[in-house]
What does this fold into?
Amino acid sequence: MDLKTLTYIVVGLSFALYVGIAIWARAGSTKEFYVAGGGVHPIVNGMATAADWMSAASFISMAGLIAFLGYGGSVYLMGWTGGYVLLAVLLAPYLRKFGKFTVPEFIGDRYYSSAARIVAVICLIFISFTYVAGQMRGVGIVFSRFLEVEIATGLMIGMGLVFFYAVLGGMKGITYTQVAQYCVLIFAYTIPAVFISMQITGNPIPQLGLGGNMGDMAFLNKLDRVVTDLGFAAYTSGDKSMIDVFCITLALMAGTAGLPHVIVRFFTVPKVHDARVSAGWALVFIAILYTTAPAVGAMARYNLHTTVNSSLATGGDVFAPEASLNGADRPAWMQRWEKTGLIRWEDKNGDGRIQYYNEKSKNPEFLAKAEAAGWKGNELGSKGKKGEFDGKVDRDIMVLANPEIAGLPDWVIALVAAGGIAAALSTAAGLLLVISASISHDLLKGVFARNISEKTELMAGRIAAAAAVLVAGYLGYNPPGFVAEVVAFAFGLACASLFPTIVMGIFYKAMNKEGAIAGMLSGLVFTMAYIVYFKGIFIEPMAKNEAANWFMGISPEGIGVVGAIVNVVVALVVSKMTAPCPDHIQHMVEGIRYPRGAGTAQAH
It folds into this structure.
């Protein structure tokens, strides 16, 4: 059986499982549609939360970033896992006790204002659609490569599947579907990692293989030698400034704790205690993948270099004529991925071989050797945003292509395809439901049509979810960047807008509605403007995205921390200049902060 047929079978079976669960767990009420009826077991909820959380960014892109950033990629590991500590300690139990369906509903009631609720919805939509763009790009990448269909066709299939189980099943269907998706994605991630670790280091445990030996040399030392021989910085060295590392890590942590599709998962359990337990189980399930990712990234980088630059496998001379791969003999995996445009080669010196090196190396001795060897520039890259050769291998292919590069069995490659789709669709479904709930529950039911029936609200939620699916598909077809890069921007927006407002709403009882509204808007606008200015999401950037141009050396991925400070400062100043928070609201806030002994939360 060929790879394509096997992939169709494995992916098709996983789709059948998701659809079957959606039919079995169909939502029949608004409570089931929004919070799965509030009766999900903490372990089940922890597994669903892990799947909701481990998006295409975690499965597809994070190890790819680690592969090329090396030590600098650790910010994603620290930020995305550390955020769950903040979530478990600062937010989950208190929001669970408050007992509302959505984050905007909490903000609207806490700040006694429909305007605050509307502003929270605006922030949520910006965050969620930025995030979902990354997920749908991941869907397009997997379908275009493994099912060998056009990206647009792949997106249509993915959109149809998400539409079915998100619109039909709501949170109840999504919860149990995400449990299945977690099982698929975690097996799809760890099994190839075990194979490749065994192949390279002889150790079947990837986490230990990363720190183990390769022959008579430590694997990481070998990798350092491989990349520095090609003019790249040592893999174990970091080139980010300390302030940028700090800000990116903190932005990802606070963004995690402020993401509405993650927070809403803690409304699906019966009690406040269960919210804490769910957070703990979610961290355990997430850690299985996140502790494996550094090994996957490092070994993927090694495999890529030693495949293209054949002399590196035996310690040969990088500049010898036979050191690089003959383009006509390039492996089948490279030819298959070339069809997606995510990897390609350009024979700049006409020698018929693929030279892959750092043409911008700061090592003059290396560059002199490259010039003497007749090299005219790096010849391996991908199609950039404008379809032109960019000299950079797309980060988003590293995890997906790694099993093929390593020559693993076809069933492993098919499993990776199913896992990549599961990771993207699980998070996309959660995000789309949050968008749906914010429109139908927070705007329609909460502000503009308070007297509508539950049946009408449920129908409105499904219509909003369908519209959100269409927008998500468009964003997947016109992605603004790498999956993890786009997701990092979403975390920055959550860090700057919702996170400070929620924390102040719980721990600072004097914060009033005027301060909260001004803070959310200022944090959101500042952060979005900074990202657009340097990264040009959906438009051309207005400045070069270089460290010399950044504010205090803080990159767009980390600027959410500054946005959060802007939020807090503006909120405090405005709150001091306006009417104080009413006494009954302050008493209510004091009640939220004592979750011990709280029972089931109210439905409304």
Q: What stands out?
A: Residues 316 and 554 are 40 Å apart (CA to CA). The chain has 24 helices and six strands. The radius of gyration is 24 Å.
